[in-house]
Amino acid sequence: MGAPEGEGREPAGTAPPGSKSPHRAVDAVDRYQRAHRWLGFPIAVIYKYADDQGGYLAALITYYGFLSVFPLLLLLLAVLGFVLAGDAHLRDSVVNSAVAQFPVVGASLRTSIHAPDRSTTGLAIGILGTLYGSIGAAQATQNAFNKVWAVPRNERPNPLKSRRRSLILLGALGVGVLVTTVASGLTTGAGSYGATVGTGVKVAGIVVVAVANVGLFMFAFRVLTSAEIPTRHLRLGAVIAGLGWEVIQLIGTYYVSRLKGTQEAYGVFGAVLGLIAWIYLLAVTTVMAAEINVVSQRHLWPRSLLTPFTDNVRLTQADERSYTYYAETERHKGFQTVDVDFDASTKAQAQAEEAAED
């Protein structure tokens, strides 16, 4: 007969008394990362990103973001065609500043998209395409934030309220884009089009863009995250995302300056791939910033090093909290009860070990 439940069995992930662990090196690294925040915290963020399938969340944002780019530029050109019909030079300057925010494919976009010459058809297509893609991107981002914060499905905004939030966000982003477009045109994009700008102006423009990005992300995190999450818990991620976007922008501009003339050889195919990769990188940065907020504010670290790879592991308290959140986020109705429990012996040993480490 087998041993009774809870008797004669070693807790998962432990070696028999008196024997040596076959993974002593891994155990040593595990103990070290648990005791040092500088290592344990990033590992916990990466693990949670993987648990939440952050790559897929970012891919969905990328899909709708890509759908909104060309209609948005078409809409911009159509509006400029009406407003600046008598000043083609000013219109081209504004367009150049806008596409300069896509440093990897900016040159290709500038030559591929043309003004619709005051066409109401172009304006209508631009508005409809922009609304579809932009609202989709905002909805995908909202879903990602709710997933990251483990907001139960029954506590998320209904389809009408969620789209209202998306429209509010798009209005704020429209104002923010005007600010960042002008500043970017004076800094990262100007050199790509042969303009000469002083160092002081460049630095000032970079600072303005970074501050604007942080403000926009703070607003986006607040609007698209469930109201139950306090605003103070969103600040760190907003700063990281805003600065991260600006760093990516600068790196992209530097990359293009070193490969100037090469990207045209790949034509439309290269432009499309480059644009998708660019949007995906920005989407990953956004989702990762939200993960940093959650791990920091809910203290979801340190995680067990081997947790993603095997069940034969001792869960930390942060592991248990994380897995509890993952289960509770799938609650569809308020009267539905979701209970999560773990093996008692394993749980007790994990608590004793963490108490000893403290």
Plain-language structure description:
The protein is mainly α. The protein has a domain at 52-297. It is built from twelve helices and no strands. Helix 1 (24-35) packs across helix 2 (37-51), helix 3 (54-83) runs antiparallel to helix 4 (88-99) and helix 7 runs antiparallel to helix 8 (199-224). The relative contact order is 0.15. The model is unreliable at 1-21 (pLDDT under 50).
In short:
The protein has 358 residues and is an all-alpha fold. It has helices at residues 24-35, 37-51, 54-83, 88-99, 106-112, 120-148, 159-186, 199-224, 235-258, 267-297, 317-328, 344-357. It contains twelve helices and no strands.
Ends apart, CA distance between termini: 40 Å
Number of strands: 0
What characterizes the major β-sheet?
A: none
CA-atom Rg in angstroms: 25 Å
Count of DSSP-assigned helices: 12
Classify the secondary structure makeup into a structural class.
mainly alpha
SSE order and pairing:
Layout: H1 24-35, H2 37-51, H3 54-83, H4 88-99, H5 106-112, H6 120-148, H7 159-186, H8 199-224, H9 235-258, H10 267-297, H11 317-328, H12 344-357
Helix pairs in contact: 1-2, 2-10, 3-4, 3-6, 3-10, 4-7, 6-7, 6-10, 7-8, 8-9, 9-10
Considering the chains and any ligands shown, give keywords for the structure.
disordered N terminus, mainly alpha, about 350 residues
